[in-house]
Amino acid sequence: MRGIRFCKYFCLLFLFTFSLFGQNNFEYDYARFYNPADGSSYVELYYSFVRSALSTVSTEDKNVSQGKLAVKIIDKRDNQIVFNNMWQLDIENSTTDDDKLLVGLLEFPLPESEYLFDISAEDLNNPEFNFNSSFDISVTPFPESSIVVSDIQLATAIIPQSQNTESIFYKNSIEITPNPSLIYGDSNPVLFFYSEIYGLSSGAVNNFIIEQKLFDATNTMVHDKQRKISNEHSSVVEVGAIKVNELNSGIYTLVISVRDDLNMVSANSTKKVFIYNRDRVDESTNFAESQKSMLESELMIMSDDEIDYMYETAVYIATEAEKQQWKKLSDYDAKRKFLSSFWEKRDSDPTTEINEYKRDYYERVAYANKNYGNVSRKEGWKTDRGRVYITYGAPGEIERFQNEYYSQPYEIWQYYNLDGGVIFLFADEQSLNIYKLVHSTKKGEIYNYNQYLKYVQ
């Protein structure tokens, strides 16, 4: 994978011909990536000005357009400004450039936190051109022990094996021209996209299937492509191109997913795409919004087995009423709706696009599968240690006793911030690495003080 070049200055502009119905004077988009070499996180911000929308003034016998772009980034955890800069654009005009976009890219290295991006753009010679917007973004730690698909970057062109290494759009031997508008159709007939997949060699799985899917607003799949890869490389790039000039106008969802060949490990990323083809417009089409959440998009592409697995691994936190409700469901569309509601009401921060509670929960499932499987239960989430880790999180301290003369191996997990402090004692009674919970001071768990005395002397 590429080394990261962080741009804290205004990048050179890349011009290309683009005339699109409904294009705003200024557009922006973003995508989050990791650098597997050091685990650092960064955000790419893509933006575009419509050249013809900028006023022209004469300076030193030249006709120029003058725009301004400003970006401010605030760390929401401590309300501190971590980046604040403004760039002025002086663009020399020519009669052949009126229909061109000015497209740029900025990169920001950001540690784990929650951020607020403030974006503003204006024409220095036209006060009516004044754009302001903001968005929240979550930057998570590098996933060393699980598979993750990066955000999807939409593009108007992709050049594999590009020799233009000086281009600001060059990465991983590919030149990718961003499409901040997210609009395709008559004048932009091919949907190009780029993403990165990490963590392929983090577990024991050897083979994976990467899928590209495109769904319309009715959840009908209009494109499906897949390829098989091995875990030879821990990270891979996934690019694609879909012809969309014959699709009906509307809002679409692009999904890039990866799973192992046993459907035991999976991850995906989704992106909204707007398609406008003049001859294929339904008057009821609403380009302004889509009711489909990121979670619904994720559930939409899951197989029936994956839907069942998603609930089975979440049963530890399900209420009795939810368990009874699930038993009555036989239709998988109904199960998808159930899971959507199940996780949405547990979302710790509904204002963000990521359900942090669900994300953290399944990260614990992945950790348990990797670390707590045994000859009795190969899936670590089904073991006693796996259940406790998934339900209560990582313990504050683990004491391991492997070679005590008076007992079989055992472990004591200390949770200092749970119910004022509790312990879990797991014993490997057959010395087969099958640890069973034999005692705990947590209310609702097994309590057997005699077992505690048997092991702790």
Describe what this molecule looks like in 3D.
By secondary structure, this protein is of the alpha+beta class. It is 15% helix and 42% strand. The chain is built from 7 helices and 24 strands. The chain has helices at residues 294-300, 304-312, 320-327, 332-344, 356-371, 384-392, 449-455; strands at 14-17, 26-35, 40-50, 56-59, 62-75, 80-92, 100-109, 113-123, 126-139, 148-149, 153-159, 170-171, 174-178, 183-185, 190-198, 207-215, 221-230, 236-243, 250-260, 266-276, 397-401, 410-415, 422-427, 436-440. Strands 10, 11, 12, 13, 15 and 18 form a 6-stranded antiparallel sheet that branches. Helix 1 (294-300) runs antiparallel to helix 4 (332-344), helix 2 (304-312) runs parallel beside helix 4 (332-344) and helix 5 (356-371) runs antiparallel to helix 6. The N and C termini lie far apart (52 Å).
Average per-residue pLDDT, rounded, comes to 85
Output the radius of gyration: 26 Å
Low-confidence stretches: 1-22, 286-291
| Main beta-sheet annotation | 6 strands, antiparallel
Topology, element by element:
Blueprint: E1 14-17, E2 26-35, E3 40-50, E4 56-59, E5 62-75, E6 80-92, E7 100-109, E8 113-123, E9 126-139, E10 148-149, E11 153-159, E12 170-171, E13 174-178, E14 183-185, E15 190-198, E16 207-215, E17 221-230, E18 236-243, E19 250-260, E20 266-276, H1 294-300, H2 304-312, H3 320-327, H4 332-344, H5 356-371, H6 384-392, E21 397-401, E22 410-415, E23 422-427, E24 436-440, H7 449-455
